[in-house]
Design a protein that fits this description.
This protein has helices spanning about 1-15, 20-35, 45, 55-65, 70-80, 90-110, 120-125, 130-150, 155-185, 205-220, 230-260, 275-285, 295-300, 305-315, 320-325, 330-365, and strands at about 85, 370-375. It is mostly helical.
Length: about 375
């Protein structure tokens, strides 16, 4: 059994594209940065002095990495667009891993004295309340239907489909959110996403949008010259576009502070067309890089554990202490060291999971027949 699992893992590693796997790693790092800054989770924007150099630095970092989740979903669409079978056991493992990590870290927090035991809290550990995992599991199950619908369209219809989705599920709902922020009023029922607006991109609609864009990029990677090595001029234009997009998002986020916002700055909504465009530009740039590296592929295989585990390490970083020193150099160093340390710790957690748990799950999976669903 062990040899079979190792053989499958090596086969998957050999099929991975290291350039995209590197981007997957960067996206995971980006999520750590976003949650370092998050006023509630890490507290970066809560503890930093407003309009100070550290505040501006964190704002730029937020604008660079705000597309991390969109990138992850786009990558999924790129790789899964031609695959119309799904393993239902994978969904079970996603939720099992989420519950296990929550439970283990809760017990750990009790052991080190950072938490007290509560039956209610213990019960809550068995409820996988993670929006990212839930929406990804839903997308994983319905995505073959997206593939079938998309792949049966003509080339012109595919362009029209993606264009309409961008307008209806990105541009328009963002404009509605801007109007709501400007007027300090919630326009119920005006958004194309839902009754209460765009949900800042935290929705299955945005997941489907990014997945479909990934399908389009996979379908047109050769036709559009994405993989061409000779189009250096186009590459330069992409880099210029990327810098401009990051600059506009950064300035937009500062403007949000002036006009006001309720929960999320409109500049940093996942459904913001500039954030979507940023994800596309970064993906195209990395598709041009030619890398074949087993180490990158191996590290990338642990990025899901980074998504699940990183928040549990943030309280130990003493973010408040270092940001309140109001020294931009210290802020830069602390953020950099924090991201590296948390990422390494999460990879260690992933290693422990694979060594102690995943092999058992693999053995259980082998005993259950017909876990693959053909659509």
């Amino acid at each position: 059994m062990r040899r079979k699992i190792e053989k499958n893992e090596m086969s998957n590693m050999s099929q991975r594209e290291s350039n995209v796997e590197l981007l997957r790693i960067i996206a995971a790092i980006g999520v750590i940065v976003l949650h370092y800054n998050n006023p509630i989770i890490g507290g970066g924007f809560t503890f930093v002095r407003s309009h100070g150099l550290s505040d501006y630095f964190l704002t730029v970092m937020e604008s660079i990495f705000i597309c991390a989740v969109d990138l992850f979903v786009l990558i999924s669409g790129y790789f899964l667009s031609k695959k119309n079978s799904r393993n239902i056991f994978r969904v079970f493992e996603l939720f099992f891993q989420t519950i296990l990590y929550t439970l283990v870290f809760y017990i750990f927090s009790i052991v080190i004295g950072n938490n007290t035991f509560s039956v209610r809290r213990l019960f809550g550990c068995f409820i996988p309340t993670n929006w990212f995992v839930t929406l990804y599991a839903v997308l994983f199950l319905i995505s073959p239907f997206i593939n079938i619908a998309y792949n049966n369209l003509s080339r012109q219809s595919k362009k029209l489909m993606v264009g309409l989705m961008v307008v209806l599920f990105s541009i328009y709902p963002t404009l509605v959110d801007i109007l709501s922020a400007f007027c300090h009023k919630q326009f119920y029922g005006l958004s194309s996403i839902g009754m209460y607006g765009s949900q800042y991109g935290y929705s299955i609609v945005n997941y489907i949008l990014m997945y479909t864009i990934g399908c389009y990029l996979a379908d047109n990677s050769l036709k559009n010259g994405i993989d061409s090595k000779n189009r250096t001029g186009k590459k330069d234009r992409i880099v210029v576009h990327l810098f401009l997009v990051i600059a506009i998002i950064t300035l937009w986020s500062r403007l949000d502070l002036i006009t006001g916002y309720e929960v999320e700055r409109t500049a940093w909504e996942y459904c913001n067309p500039l954030v979507v465009y940023e994800a596309v530009l970064i993906f195209i740039l990395f598709r041009r890089i030619k890398i074949n590296n087993a180490v990158i592929n191996k590290i990338a295989s642990g990025t899901f554990s980074v998504y699940l585990a990183h928040e549990h390490f943030l309280p130990f970083l003493k973010i408040e202490k270092y940001l309140k020193l109001d020294n931009v150099i210290i802020t830069v160093i602390h953020l950099l060291v924090s991201v590296i340390v948390v990422f390494i710790l999460c990879l260690f957690v992933d290693l422990m999971y694979k060594v102690l748990v995943k092999r058992i799950i693999g053995a259980l999976k082998d005993r259950i027949p017909n876990t693959d669903i053909e659509y």
